[in-house]
Design goal:
This protein is of the alpha/beta class. The protein is built from five helices and five strands. It has one domain: Alpha/Beta hydrolase fold, catalytic domain (Rossmann fold). The chain is 36% helix and 24% strand. Strands 1-2-4-3-5 form a five-stranded mixed β-sheet. It starts with a helix and ends with a helix.
Length: 123
């Protein structure tokens, strides 16, 4: 455990987040945004996508040529801190909205869900 914490602290200094770190309910969340456009495409990851901003890079790199894109990394994924808050659909939706707002990403949005985040997009 001590080795893991030491390595994690070192890696967090070496591998800085490419986007913005924002606070949502006291938890640091990572939002990566790029490109220009009138509408922001919000890429939402499913469960198990360990680093959405990197995992989705082939997709968002092409989309960012013509659109504004934003990738939200939920608590516990990518550069976002973990959270003890419930992981129900209401909480996930609220955190996503708050993270976009805190990162200065204005709507309108087009949600681009992956896997289980489709439930959030429908909700």
């Amino acid at each position: 455990m001590a080795f893991h914490r030491t390595r994690l602290a070192r890696e967090s200094r070496e591998f800085l987040p490419p986007g913005r770190i924002v606070k949502v309910h006291g938890v640091k969340m990572h939002v990566y945004a790029a490109g220009d456009g009138d509408t922001t495409l919000v890429l939402l990851s499913g469960h198990g996508t360990s680093v959405p901003s990197l995992d989705f890079k082939p997709l968002w790199a092409r989309l960012a040529r013509d659109h504004r894109i934003a990738v939200i990394e939920r608590p516990g994924y990518g550069w976002s801190d973990g959270s003890n808050r419930p992981r129900d659909i209401d909480t996930l939706t609220e955190e996503s909205r708050m993270a976009l707002e805190a990162a200065g990403e204005d709507g309108p949005y087009v949600l681009v869900p992956h896997s289980m985040s489709g439930l959030e997009a429908i909700y």
